[in-house]
TrEMBL record:
Matching InterPro entries: CBS_dom, CBS_dom_sf, Diverse_CBS-Domain, ParB/Sulfiredoxin_sf, ParB_N
Source organism: Halarchaeum acidiphilum MH1-52-1
Domain of life: Archaea
Gene3D superfamilies in the record: CBS-domain (3.10.580.10), Conserved hypothetical protein from pyrococcus furiosus pfu- 392566-001, ParB domain (3.90.1530.10)
Pfam families according to UniProt: CBS
Official protein name in the record: CBS/parB domain-containing protein
UniProt cross-references to SUPFAM superfamilies, sorted A to Z: CBS-domain pair (SSF54631), ParB/Sulfiredoxin (SSF110849)
Ranges for domain CBS: 26-84, 86-143
Keywords: CBS domain
């Protein structure tokens, strides 16, 4: 199992991942408005780019009273208060609900996001379809970490500790020579929407080798992101004189992400094209 310092040496089992709850993935930094706010103020907020294309309406104790979205503001003119146009009947979820069940509610109701409230209907956060996707993506990471860990332990006959922390993008040493341009765009979207998997890196003395996540790391670098969350496998330098990953990186001339080549999408092995020249030759 993968042991993390984040969980105080607790192991993450498949069953625990099946039981992850909404509170583990909901967003708590949610903008709200009061019932006596002016609609014009909400319109200004939406123009600035609201994450949920609207804002929850709460009282002074954060009790959820309604939601005012772009659709509620259509053809609304003049000095109008939020309580006159907000939607009052809302579908909500509880923080202890499983992510799996919350995703089912989202799918069946056609909503893109749902308010998360406690037993007193106080707003705790928002849970979106993106958060549901993110939870499923991150479930795949521990199995990747475990397989990488087992490979290194078998190869070098050592025990490897695994921890979770943020790592500096500028300090990563790549172990992959090239990435694909189109996949970089996909990773950029994931980063912008909080859907990116954590990186997997190996800490080897003063060096941090990037094992999994080259597209994500390069996309982060391009976006000006300084640090990313990662699973860190620590290999003691005093126990392993020559780390295979480090040797490969050195032979390939890889010292930083600047050394990674970016291939055009047409060179991707999954892109198959017909050969018109071959057809002409057959016809002759």
């Amino acid at each position: 199992m993968v042991t993390t310092d984040h969980d105080r040496d607790a192991t993450i089992t498949p069953m625990e991942f099946d039981e992850i709850s909404v509170e583990d993935y909901m967003r708590t930094d949610v903008e709200t408005v009061a019932t006596d706010a002016w609609v014009t103020d909400v319109v200004d907020r939406l123009k600035e780019g609201s994450q949920y294309n609207g804002v929850p309406v709460v009282d002074e104790d954060d009790h959820l009273l309604g939601f005012v979205g772009a659709i509620d503001l259509l053809e609304v003119y003049g000095d109008v208060h939020v309580n006159e146009v907000m939607t009052r009947e809302l579908i909500v979820v509880r923080p202890g609900m499983s992510v799996k069940n919350a995703a089912r509610v989202i799918f069946r109701t056609g909503h893109q996001f749902l308010p998360v409230v406690d037993e007193d209907d106080r707003l705790l956060g928002m849970f979106s379809n993106g958060d549901a996707v993110r939870s499923q993506i991150e479930r795949t990471t521990p199995s990747k970490v475990q397989s990488t860990r087992e490979l290194l332990e078998r190869t070098h006959d050592i025990d490897i500790e695994v921890s979770e922390r943020d790592v500096a993008i500028s300090e990563l040493m790549p172990t992959q020579r090239s990435v694909y341009a189109d996949e970089l765009e996909g990773r950029k979207y994931e980063l912008e929407n909080g859907l990116a998997e954590p990186l997997i890196v190996v800490s080897y003395g003063y060096e941090t080798l990037l094992v999994d996540g080259h597209h994500r790391a390069l996309a982060a670098e391009r976006a000006g992101i300084d640090r990313m969350h990662a699973y860190v496998l620590t290999v003691p330098r005093e126990e392993v004189a020559e780390l295979g990953l480090r040797k490969m990186a050195r032979l390939d001339g890889l010292r930083s992400l600047d050394d990674v080549e970016i291939d055009d999408y047409v060179q991707h092995p999954l892109i198959e094209r017909t050969d018109p020249d071959a057809r002409e030759t057959e016809a002759e």
